[in-house]
Amino acid sequence: MATKARSPNYPQISLVRAIDLTAKLYDKAHTHKASSAVVASALGYTGLNGASQGVISALKKYGLIEGVGDSEFKVSKDGLTIVVDPKSSTERATAILRAAFRPSLFAELRAEYGDKPPKSDDFLRAFLLKRGFVQSVVDTPIRTYRETMELVEVAQRVLGEAAQGQGPRVAFEEEEEEEEEEGPDMSNAPPRTVMQAAAAPAAPSVVVVPQSQMGDIVNDVYKLPDGRAFVLSWPAKITADEYEDFEAWILLLQRKLKRQIEP
To answer: What is the C-alpha to C-alpha distance for residues 42 and 21, in angstroms, rounded to an integer?
Structure first.
């Protein structure tokens, strides 16, 4: 007996919709654990069925809720931050970036196209079909992905504005893809408090916290064959929240460096 073709797993709803539903769950249960049936009811469903289970699965994929035991869930730390923080919050923006690329499919698409998806759906459609998606449903993940990326753009704008304002936290912005002047030769420069690619153009926009305010510093250097170097310095002690923010910044920095690779 022939089996029905199935597409790979992906969030059935966009991150925008997932955040709205997480807010509903928070209004009903706050951060307390709740059974699958209670979660489905809080999200507006009459019970557990294919539709409600698909939505609960999407919230899990984005990391907005987390499992507690066998069949109970609660709003996660990132879900809580996104729901309760003001829209201008850099912590909220960073949590949104983490949530947007937790689904493996969206992480793959980001690795392929960066943070600016191609304007034509034809490229995305071909990408998904090559990965086993069924032709009849391939447009659904495309729509979900594009809606999610619109929210990513907003989050990056918040972080960019924070960097422009010289706030106290290390922040970053996704720069426009345009030519910039090549920086000075920094091959002999001492370590700084942020990652830098010596003599590399288009350095990331960051807020540099004075070393006197950072305590003990750990330094690491990766030398290139021609003598230039990547230098990274970080505080010897950091919190879990600080690490998560740094991890999100590193992901964007990787994208910026990749665009500088010479053909």
So the answer is: 8
Output 169 or 98, whichever has higher pLDDT.
Answer: 98
d(CA 80, CA 75): 6
Share of the chain above pLDDT 90, in %: 49
Q: Which residues of 12-29 are buried (b: 16+ CB within 10 A; e: fewer)?
A: bbbbebbbebbbebbeeb
* Number of residues assigned to the chain: 263
Tens digit of each residue's pLDDT (9 = 90 or more) over 183-193: 444 444 444 44
The residue type of 235 is P
Per-residue pLDDT tens for 101-121?
999 999 999 999 988 889 999
**CA dihedral over 201, 203, 205, 210, signed as positive or negative:** negative
Give residue-wise pLDDT tens across range 28-46: 999 999 999 999 999 999 8
- Exposure on the CB side of residue 133, measured as CA atoms within 13 A: 19
Listed residue (241, 255, 210, 261) closest to 101, CA to CA: 255
The Cα angle at residue 32 between residues 29 and 102, in degrees rounded to 5: 90
Q: Give CA angle at 195 (191, 196), nearest 5°.
A: 80
pTM, whole model, 2 decimals?
Answer: 0.62
Alpha-carbon span 31 to 23, nearest angstrom: 11
| Cα gap 60→99, rounded to integer Å | 10
